[in-house]
Amino acid sequence: MPFTRKHILGTQEMDAAEISYILDVTESFVEVSTREIKRVPTLRGKTVINLFYEPSTRTRTSFEIAGKRLSADVINVSASASSVVKGESLKDTAMTLAAMAVDVIVIRHPASGAPHFLARHVPSSVINGGDGTHEHPTQALLDLYTIRQRKGTLAGLRVSIIGDIAHSRVARSNIFAMRTMGMDVRVCGPASLLPLEVESLGVRVGTDLDAAIGDADIIMVLRLQLERQETGLIPSLREYSQLYGLTLKRLEQAKPDVLIMHPGPINRGVEISPEVAEGPYSLILDQVANGVALRMALLYLLAGGPGPE
Amino acid sequence: MPFTRKHILGTQEMDAAEISYILDVTESFVEVSTREIKRVPTLRGKTVINLFYEPSTRTRTSFEIAGKRLSADVINVSASASSVVKGESLKDTAMTLAAMAVDVIVIRHPASGAPHFLARHVPSSVINGGDGTHEHPTQALLDLYTIRQRKGTLAGLRVSIIGDIAHSRVARSNIFAMRTMGMDVRVCGPASLLPLEVESLGVRVGTDLDAAIGDADIIMVLRLQLERQETGLIPSLREYSQLYGLTLKRLEQAKPDVLIMHPGPINRGVEISPEVAEGPYSLILDQVANGVALRMALLYLLAGGPGPE
Amino acid sequence: MPFTRKHILGTQEMDAAEISYILDVTESFVEVSTREIKRVPTLRGKTVINLFYEPSTRTRTSFEIAGKRLSADVINVSASASSVVKGESLKDTAMTLAAMAVDVIVIRHPASGAPHFLARHVPSSVINGGDGTHEHPTQALLDLYTIRQRKGTLAGLRVSIIGDIAHSRVARSNIFAMRTMGMDVRVCGPASLLPLEVESLGVRVGTDLDAAIGDADIIMVLRLQLERQETGLIPSLREYSQLYGLTLKRLEQAKPDVLIMHPGPINRGVEISPEVAEGPYSLILDQVANGVALRMALLYLLAGGPGPE
Predict the structure, then answer these.
(1) C19 close to C141: Cβ distance less than 8 angstroms
(2) What's the CA gap between A86 and B55, in Å, rounded?
(3) How far is C40 from chain A (nearest CA, A)?
(4) In this structure, are residues C42 and C304 in contact, taking their beta carbons and an 8 Å threshold?
């Protein structure tokens, strides 16, 4: 399949063939990180910029490692260390960086749509590393890869996504991609954290955790933004944890081969108990490991060059 | 021409032959950034430190990309992330870094003269990445390269530099270099932002923007530091913009082939209108692109090794 | 000697044979930084993470340069730029980073024992880059290398360590390693900055600087944390400096071939005078230069691969 997409902005615009192809390419990069010498010359002489307007360890580091294992030159630009403090517009920052002959700009930004805006104004390829409450496509794609790696397939699997659906770009990107791949998606959380229009995305909706656990092949727990408490969207962390925290006790009702996922970073003892996060059915560290491979695949697909040898 | 200079501290000390030579070497590096594989082995095994005491996206990134495309090891040290918070003196920080067998230190510092101080105390080569209100030689050299690239020559061209001349290291470095190259320089801005002794630099001075626009081959607009308003040096941004902002209307009086430059980051709608900044006569993104090549040239000239292949 | 240690957590657990071997390996890497091309392919395709929870120029830069000269991919993660702000636990941060197939994690952390905790939970090798008031083993090892380089031997040498012994991880790691290597160690400082149990470490203790200077082959001056004054542990910087600051006058009583060391960054005029810090008997910059080589040696020993060619 020839890959002709120039930017990775969201999973909403991807069809099943494209998603499958990206996961297939990811497969070949998973192996690279298990080698004695974890480096291929694929993107030698290419320049990748990580333009992060929000702090992030895991996503920025994952992209940086992915780029370096492909031999690209990777440059980090963070809002706090940049002339953004001087009030330069996003557009000017991006056009300036692109003018330095940059091949790929990975952007994380608190404003929904920022990567799409960028993609219209720069000649570089743009990867959305998370924009506002909109999309986080690389997270969803690595999640799908991780599920497929374990289950062998995607279509027909039942997924329950638990938590703050309304504000989660991870949930949105996963819902789009999972529906496209023929998965059965249920979302579950307190009513105050469920978006009004969510049924229109083709998912089942509920507020009862036990029901969401009962028939799920995969339970995806979302991080609770602790600020939600201050804004009154949840009564207290304690109550949230009692109603929606995933514990061993709660898991007793789950399928014996249920798989647990979380995009991280986890709030131990809030939305997930340590025993569950580190249990044998937990894919949390697989998600992290596969994230590097998925990002290598995307950088390779966008910036060209030969594949892994 | 054998290049024997050890440091790049300012354009004031450079003669025309040296500037011409640097621009010639830049020429050969411009091509590298247009290649499929934008990387040459010129500085393999050399170490470059970006020591930035002021935040900067573009200059730091430009040097980092330049170093990496030359295959150098580039290390960023920023004041906020460094033990500078522990109160270590500039001299000790620099001597420490240099003791790690560093070939080139690029320094940006709010104190005029800091790079010169450094150059007296460390064995490494030092490049001034901007010091206080004193000099920003790499900006001026990339500006000259950009003009020469478009006009084919420098001598005899008329340049008007508009804005806060008094506090601009970009203006100072450009005035020195342009006068040395036989260009006719005029500076223009509100009287409160014109330095007292500026005629002694061999430039014409005025406060009337229309006069400065009229016969210019190149109009270089400076960034207005928004803090100037608070210190009372300008009455208001609005008034500044009305009197000295470069707009399409204002440009009607300019030569038909006038070229517009700005060192960035721009304040859209303050010193320059978006239409002018993005117009066909604007060289702003050329300046950025050439900045990488000029810095590659300087790193190559200082740290030796073979040229681009 | 086969090197079987997986982590470098402290000098307390090392015996004389191991320390000697590390210093021998360091010897071969000292030469690399003097080459025209300061880069060997030893760790190509290996990933090193600098995980710094405290700001640091010199240690972070030293590890970064060491890793890059070995051709490793080096990733910096600092607390301020990371999701640590989101409250992620150290364990989860480390497990996440390790899941990205990271070979070595260098950690600096304000909590004593943090590197040991990490080493129990991640598959990567861990190097302690300084933990609380506990250990800073790479500093002690580079100090020993520097002494051995100058004196040819370690056993029997007399060392006086001056300053805030109670809170110094540098002092602790040096005391362990120096005692193991058969050196005669004396510590000296105001009573409020001497730990209660220090004699049990096999060192002599005193509060009189002149006595500590008199028969020392090496005087190691510690950095005074300026916060000590606020907490009442010293009456004033001025008084501290008069009683414990190492000056040329004070040095008149020292052996003619005494050597002066300081881990940096120095407080000029507080614990050491500029004349002493920059005098001919000062090893301060040798310590910095050897630090890169020592860290190259440790990264090589932990992450395998062929040695320097």
Answers:
(1) yes
(2) 9
(3) 14
(4) no
Helices A90-99 & A114-121, crossing angle to 10 degrees? 50
The DSSP letter of residue B189 is -
Interface mutation target, options C58, C70, C221, C278, chain B, most CBs of B under 10 Å: C58
In this prediction, residue A87 carries a pLDDT of 55
Per-residue pLDDT, C307: 54
Q: Which of C47, C73, C83 sits opposite A58 (nearest CB)?
A: C83
How many Cα atoms are found within 13 Å in the side-chain-facing hemisphere of C123? 9
Count CA atoms within 13 Å of residue A182 on its CB side: 8
Sign of torsion over alpha carbons C74, C78, C81, C87: positive
List chain C residues with CB under 8 Å of B85: 55
Burial level of B155, CB count in 10 A (0-12/13-18/19+)? exposed
Segments of chain A scoring below 70 in pLDDT = 1, 80-88, 305-309
Cβ neighbours of residue C12 under 8 Å, at least 6 residues apart?
C135, C173, C176
pTM attached to this predicted model:
0.95
Burial per residue of A223-235, b for 16 or more beta-carbon CB atoms within 10 angstroms, e otherwise: bbbeebbeeebbe
| Contact status, residue A48 vs residue A74, Cβ threshold 8 Å | yes
Name the token pair of C158.
């007399």
Which residue stretches of chain B have pLDDT < 70? 1, 80-88, 305-309
- CA pair distance B179, B211, nearest whole angstrom: 20
Q: At what angle do helices B284-303 and B16-30 cross, to 10 degrees?
A: 110
Q: Reduce the secondary structure of chain A to three states and give it as a string.
A: CCCCCCCECCCCCCCHHHHHHHHHHHHHHHCHHHCCCCCCCCCCCCEEEEEECCCCCHHHHHHHHHHHHCCCEEEEEEHHHCHHHHCCCHHHHHHHHHHCCCCEEEEEECCCCHHHHHHHHCCCEEEEEEECCCECHHHHHHHHHHHHHHHCCCCCCEEEEECCCCCCHHHHHHHHHHHHCCCEEEEECCHHHCCCCHHHHCCEEECCHHHHHHCCCEEEECCCCCHHHHCCCCCCHHHHHHHHCECHHHHCCCCCCCEEECCCCCCECCCECHHHHCCCCECHHHHHHHHHHHHHHHHHHHHCCCCCC
Cα separation, C205 vs C160, in Å, equals: 10
- Label the pairing between strands A104-109 and A47-52: parallel
Which residue is closest to B42 within chain C, CA to CA? Answer: C37
Residues in chain C: 309
Percent of chain C with pLDDT over 90: 84
pLDDT, tens only, C286-308: 999 999 999 999 999 999 865 55
Contacts of A49 in chain B (CB under 8 A): 61
Query: What are the pLDDT digits (tens) for C228-273?
Result: 777 778 888 899 999 999 999 999 999 999 999 999 999 999 999 9
| C80 at A interface, C-beta within 8 A | yes
> Of the candidates B111, B134, B5, which has an alpha carbon nearest to the alpha carbon of residue B51?
B111
Q: Tell if the CB–CB gap between A266 and C92 is shorter than 8 Å.
A: yes
Nearest CA distance, A200 vs chain C (angstrom): 32
How far apart are alpha carbons C45 and C303 in whole angstroms?
Answer: 11
For C25-53, how does the pLDDT look when each residue is reduced to its tens digit (9 = 90+)? 999 999 999 999 999 999 999 999 999 99
Chain B residues inside the 8 Å CB shell of A53: none
Q: How far does the CA of residue C176 sit from the closest CA of chain A (Å)? A: 35
Q: Would an 8 Å CB–CB cutoff place A97 in contact with chain B? A: yes
Cβ–Cβ < 8 Å for A108, A137: no
Task: List, as one string, the DSSP characters of B223-241.
Answer: PPPTHHHHTTSSS-HHHHH
**Which residue of chain A is at minimal alpha-carbon distance from C97?**
A58
Cα–Cα dist B166/B189, whole Å: 9
